[in-house]
Amino acid sequence: MKSSTKLLRLWRINKAFLSRSQISILIKLATLSLFCLMVATSIGSYEIPLLQIMLGDAQLLQQIVLIEIRLPRVILSALVGAGLGVAGASLQGLFRNPLADPGLIGVSAGAALGAALFIVVGSGVTTGFIAGVFLLPIAAILGASFVIIMLYLLTQGFGHQGVTYMLLVGIAVNAIASVAIGILTFVSTDAELRGLMFWTMGSFGGVTWPVLLPAIFIILIAIFYLLPSARQLDIIQLGEPEAYRLGVNIKKLKYRIIFSSATAVGASVALSGMIGFVGLVVPHLARLIGGVNHNYLLPASALMGASLMITADLISRLVIQPAELPVGLITSAIGSPFFLWLIFRLRRP
User: Fold this and answer.
1) pLDDT tens per residue across span 200-237
2) Where are the domains of the chain?
3) 3-state secondary structure string, the chain?
4) Which one of 47, 66, 69, 303 is separated from 163 by 20 to 30 angstroms, measured CA to CA?
5) CATH 1.10.3470.10 fits 87-272, yes or no
6) How confident is the model at residue 74 (pLDDT cuts 50, 70, 90)?
């Protein structure tokens, strides 16, 4: 009787989709993301007044810095933040536990290992290939997909009881990936070594439009493919048997979440390196301010992730000008204390 009442209550909640307060929060988050994008575009080692750009009074050097350097970087940071935020929220919903994070469970490490293998082994073989710009993200996506599939098989469906095994597997995957990347670093040439060092701490420097345009397509497709899963992610919180009784295709949902999350994480890691804790911190912040409904949580995680990543990249550019800190250090500094707080919070009876 209690189970039937719980199912009916959840069914009614999901029919409502978004409350007025959640819509208001999403509008505010969208405004915040736009504000962060404008500020990050204009501020840096070289100041670019946006008002002059809009009025057409900017110097040629300012236009070149804005269009060729600053704008691709800010757009990439927003995309990566949005992709990692949505992937983290989706994986937490599918795992049905709050500790699922693309970096924590080894997905980012798998993506980085796939990219590193391509840099050292495949880059010379595929030189001149017409679709070469897509091969590095594809290698990272394959690495992320392999890790998520392995997690699925070893934790038997991402249930509550599998959280300990999931974290242990994630630790093992991160260790194995670190060893493999270390070996690749040892046998790589000087040019390959510079590329491999990029993955260790994460950075948005050096991005160009030819590299960014495929990433925009890949990450946005993954995000928009995840968003329709919101209602099913709400229902699956009751457990797979109850979700199946309510008409959720469990197998199809798992495939959608697994491969879409792997695509978003793989493309993000391929272009920015390993950036941790965004997929863990952002969904929890979104829940704290607006609730657990995935119809709200997924877009809120995307917008909040974009704002957080743009801000982290801006901080990394401003702290030690004209040099810059790896953006992965900024996100880890934010996420590590939050992760400890979350663990102690989960220990409460």
Assistant:
1) 778 888 788 888 888 888 899 999 999 999 989 999 88
2) 87-272
3) CHHHHHHHHHHHHHHHCCCHHHHHHHHHHHHHHHHHHHHHHHCCCCCCCHHHHHHCCCCHHHHHHHHHHHHHHHHHHHHHHHHHHHHHHHHHHHHCCCCCCCCCCCHHHHHHHHHHHHHHHHCCCCCCCCCHHHHHHHHHHHHHHHHHHHHHHHHCCCCHHHHHHHHHHHHHHHHHHHHHHHHHHHHCCHHHHHHHHHHHHCCCCCCCHHHHHHHHHHHHHHHHHHHHHHHHHHHHCCCHHHHHHCCCCHHHHHHHHHHHHHHHHHHHHHHHCCCCCHHHHHHHHHHHHHCCCHHHHHHHHHHHHHHHHHHHHHHHHHCCCCCCCCHHHHHHHHHHHHHHHHHHHHCCC
4) 303
5) yes
6) very high
